[in-house]
Amino acid sequence: MDKTPKRPFPKPNPARRKNNRTKKITSTISQHQSEKLQKVLAEAGLGSRRSLEHWIASGRVDVNGVPATLGARVQGSDTIRVDGRKLFRPPPGTARLRVLRYHKPVGEICSRADPEDRPSVFQRLPGISRGRWIAVGRLDINTCGLLLFTNAGELANRLMHPSSGTEREYAVRVLPWSPEKDSAQFSSDESSAGIKYDPNGKKNGIALDVIERLRKGVRLEDGVARFEDITDAGGQGQNHWYHVTIREGKTHEVRRLWEAVGLRVSRLIRIRYGPIRLERDLRPGRWEELSAWETAQLARSVGLGRLIGTPKLPPRKPRYGESGKPRKAFRKPPEDRSGSRLPPRGSNPTTRS
């Protein structure tokens, strides 16, 4: 008979103790993880990272009361001031991603302040408790249509950056430059800036070679630009519309492309930005918040799906028991009008004496 005394407790494992200590250290480091200063400023919607680097170099940004330098990193507990104003930073994981769809009318500007005191698109937006609304791109004062706003600077900068390749679709109506022909409809012998509208070779009122030239690319002052797609949207005469799609989003790119081939834009409406379209029932000057599905679709289109919190669903109960047989559904016994339980069918109720 073995009389070796048994240990009352299991022998401690030094490797397990080391792993627990490593987990604690890792969790502490993750809570105090630092980020680049220009990235934090860009997420707050103050501008692109490149422009914010100039702000830092010029001394406009302070961290904990000390002028910041290029390459500086900040933590969640640091206090950042831009031009003397404290920057609000929500705790990580608490800010909800929000996106607005706004129908910009003609006559409004996309700046917050204007020396001429013209109406701004920001005057019609709803109030926001934390942060501020950031415009995703711009539309000039004579252009109307879809304009997106978000409270996430990272999403706005990613959507506007040319590397994302986000498509912008516009509905455009073009006319010849010649003033005496602006009031006349297109005819077989009509020409403008060397463009002939031949009835046998025209497409949507514009010659096929002009359409092909706009698709292949036209050299502008800041490089070659082109339309990704040009489709006929219908209409007759001066009220003939086209749908054009671009990706880069240069300044006045749609207008300058048409001007390069001898035509001028009389109406320009943005109808789509990425996967988000301008709804027909959204009147000019009105806004609406995107649904959770549309917001997730927009964020994932530029690789920012991590900004969307996916709720965890409760685990489903197994349909079969451990023995492999289906579970029997539990049925609550019916009640009579007095509230007492009725006996199940086929049973003989016992009488009380």
Q: Could you outline the blueprint of secondary structure elements for this entry?
A:
Layout: H1 14-31, E1 35-36, H2 37-43, H3 49-57, E2 61-63, E3 66-67, E4 73-74, E5 80-82, E6 85-86, E7 99-104, E8 134-136, E9 144-150, H4 153-160, E10 168-176, E11 191-192, E12 195-196, E13 202-203, E14 206-207, H5 208-216, E15 218-220, E16 223-225, E17 229-234, E18 241-246, H6 253-260, E19 263-273, E20 276-277, E21 287-289, H7 292-301
Parallel strand pairs: 9-19
Antiparallel strand pairs: 1-4, 2-3, 2-5, 5-6, 7-9, 7-21, 8-9, 10-18, 10-19, 11-12, 13-14, 15-16, 17-18, 19-20
Tally the beta strands. 21
Distance between the termini: 67 Å
Radius of gyration (CA) equals 32 Å
CATH evolutionary superfamily of the largest domain: Pseudouridine synthase
Organism: Candidatus Kentrum sp. LFY
Region (Disordered): 1-31, 307-353
Keywords: Isomerase, RNA-binding
GO molecular function, one term: RNA binding
Please sum up the structure shown.
With 353 residues, the chain is an alpha+beta fold. It has helices spanning 14-31, 37-43, 49-57, 153-160, 208-216, 253-260, 292-301; strands at 35-36, 61-63, 66-67, 73-74, 80-82, 85-86, 99-104, 134-136, 144-150, 168-176, 191-192, 195-196, 202-203, 206-207, 218-220, 223-225, 229-234, 241-246, 263-273, 276-277, 287-289.
Could you name the key traits of this structure?
353 residues, alpha+beta, Pseudouridine synthase, 2 domains, 20% helix
